[in-house]
Amino acid sequence: MAAATGPARWHRNLSAKIAAIPMITTALVVFIGGTAWTVLYSFTSSKLLPKEKFVGFAQYERLWSSSKWLISIENLAIYGAFSLIFSLLIGFVLAALLDQKIRFEDTFRTLLLYPFALSFIVTGLAWQWILNPDFGIQQVVRNLGWENFSFDPLYNPDIVIYGILIAGLWQGTGLIMCLMLAGLRGIDEDIWKAAKIDGIPMWKTYIFIIIPMMRGIFITAIVLIASGIIKVYDLVVAQTGGGPGIASEVPAKYVYDAMFLSQNLGQGFAASTMMLLTVIVIVVPWAYLEFGGKRRG
């Protein structure tokens, strides 16, 4: 009986498994194969075309001695930290407000989610105009009488990344709000009633009861936000083009410039590999704690 269990289990849903073979093959060849190819050629002196002339860690040494790359890493860290914190915070607060069964909820939800339907290029261009000191927010406020008011983040190298952050939050917060709202709507009403009967303040109910129950929603939101942070490119190109100077460079743009403008594939592959390594360093420990601990339990 036990011997027959293995084959019987293998033949279960056999047609679905056969249908999945092309997808699995594509994933192995395109994603895993492409990743391995990129890492391999990051150790070569490839320029316009790939070539198998290995130079060891020369591309990585050049990469980490580049001020443009170091600035892009710093910008990504700043953008990533603030984007993660404020996206979760603003998204949850907006969801909590909409969860109070306010009037015109559908209208507000649509307005808040609408920016997510736009491409990053459109969002970047729109906020480039809004933050333009000649006819944007700065000029509007000055026309109202505050002639010394200054707000031109896209033209100030010290704070340009925060101007890009504003556009990113405007576009992405609506999606996080919808995820949080779906999580809040899934909370049993009896929990709210019990907390109210026990005299627990609403803010404590959210922090100590509701948020821990929404752990899965928060993990999903963090994954979505993190994926957007790593590949941020369109906003930078549309708003600043990496300027002023190289003040708003990000890793994804560095990879593009190295591979297609400088025609240095080896350098672009090295930068891509470092981005991949960053993702692995973040994802693997989280996956181990999230799934490995449950299996051991």
UniProtKB/TrEMBL annotation:
One of its GO terms (cellular component) is plasma membrane. The chain crosses the membrane at residues 18-43, 76-98, 110-130, 159-184, 205-230, 269-289. Its main location: membrane. PANTHER family: ABC TRANSPORTER PERMEASE PROTEIN (PTHR30193). It is a multi-pass membrane protein. One of its GO terms (biological process) is transmembrane transport. InterPro entries: ABC_transporter_permease, MetI-like, MetI-like_sf. Residues 73-288 form the ABC transmembrane type-1 domain. It is found in: Cell membrane. Keywords: Cell membrane, Membrane, Transmembrane, Transmembrane helix, Transport. This is Lactose transport system permease protein LacF. Belongs to the binding-protein-dependent transport system permease family.
